[in-house]
């Protein structure tokens, strides 16, 4: 389909749920975020999670924008296997605490639980992509080139990816990798 290429897919080693974005400019801010994360663990995370990993199911796909023919982000839907809202409660309370601390800006009323599967920001080498698609007359690419996600959405609307045990919250560093291939981590609970 138009605009679809393998470079749009998330690296499987880096699959994650984003709760929010922090801009930590120095070691003190990183330490403040780590300390706050530990306080959250003591104040509510352990209680809500019952001290155990949360079992979530990943099933179905959705897209972020208004037009499926012009998709920029396609994600897998995530929900608690037991049907509870414990993951949503933890995510929302963590963001609330980080916003209150001044380390995060409030963007939404609640966290949208999702695992990004395809993102046009991951697209590599647009000039090679242009040659491969023989799109004559298009001399430059904007930062993002949307893709037509209609068929993917139809085919994988209810696709069952599986279940996973969520056992940590991490302060991950964008554009980085550790030895496992996952993001380098500044702190975690």
TrEMBL record:
Q: Which domain of life is it from?
A: Eukaryota
Residues forming coiled coils: none
Q: Where is the A-kinase anchor protein 7-like phosphoesterase domain?
A: 3-187
Q: Which GO terms describe its biological process?
A: DNA alkylation repair; regulation of DNA-templated transcription
One of the record's GO cellular component terms: nucleus
Q: What is this protein called?
A: Activating signal cointegrator 1 complex subunit 1
Organism classification: Eukaryota, Metazoa, Chordata, Craniata, Vertebrata
